[in-house]
Amino acid sequence: MFKTLEALDLQQHAELKYRPVTGYAFARELTTAPLSASEVVPASRQMMVVFAGSDAIKPVVLLSARQASNPFVAESGEWQGDYIPAHIRRYPFILGESGTQGRYVVMIDRAAPNFDDQAQQEGEALFVDGKAPEGGMVARAREFLLRFQNELEQTQRLLQPLVDKGVLVERQLNVTRNGKKEVAVNGFKVVDAEKLKALDDATLAAWARSGLLGLVYAHLHSQGNTQALLRGMQQDAEAA
What is the pTM of this model? Predict the structure, then answer.
């Protein structure tokens, strides 16, 4: 999704302007997206939520069973879904590591159609009088990015008991059409329902109080959301 990343720099981007761009064509090839804990429930209503990683587990949403194909993005660029993950909403901005632990820099996709450095171009200047203005686009982007990054880090800590208790299992998703397996998606983990039921009451109570149990149930319920994956395969077949 991010093509040409550059750290936002006063000298390099002094004349850069930002303008909103309608649509989500930039996410047309996106097949997965990371989620924060607060996103799991709304995303699970229409998308399949799984887990990725080994020691540090994070929830991700499966957008497509096909590489470089996202059925949630219409041909017109309109988003075809009830929820848009924050990872997509933050585009064309993202955080990059600054080299100092715990500190980040704001980065932009310089190839995004949102940016232009032509003097006559309409848009909001990223820098005014040699600085990013208070309440301006850079400040708003930084606030959103830092909040999202903080939520992602908190989410990993919240999910750690899933690793500690060994309830996650590797899973492969086989997508079929007309009784024939079309594609297999692997490399992700799900909560094993039987291992979950075998946990002691004290553990389940602690998970309920922390909010983890609610996320687990949302994740389990989302496993039936294969409609979008099938829709993407149908679109590929029609295009062929």
Answer: 0.90
